[in-house]
Amino acid sequence: MQIVIDILSFVLLAAGGVFMVISAVGVNRMPDIYTRLHAASVADTLGAGLLIAGMMLQAGPTLVTAKLVMILAILFFSGPVAGHAVARAALAAGVRPHVDHPEESADACGADFNVEAVPHETVRDDVKLIRSLKGLRPAGRAAKAKAKG
Known about the structure:
Layout: H1 2-29, H2 33-59, H3 63-92, H4 102-109, H5 120-132, H6 141-148
């Protein structure tokens, strides 16, 4: 029976590792932050889920398995929330999605939806703008003191 658990655990761990590598390649290859978030969510849910499932099989019915279940629950609930928060922050900062065919996107969204084509270089410039913090409005007491002085 132990050999079956070891084989199944190995398969789950290997599959989780493969999904993590695929996700890492996807994050590096995607053109903008929104598609990169999609690639990262693969690692966040499927990759981590398979890895933790493989570890739970190896741990057996112990306290370690209960802790792994709690970690899995935290990952499954916090991952989508964090991805959504990052996407909304990028949208609020003015980062536009990369669109190859704006007319097709406009047709799919309806007549009142305005879609502009964003070349790949412009997306990179938007990301550089966010990284340099230019154009972002400072907030808080330190910003008010800096504005006065």
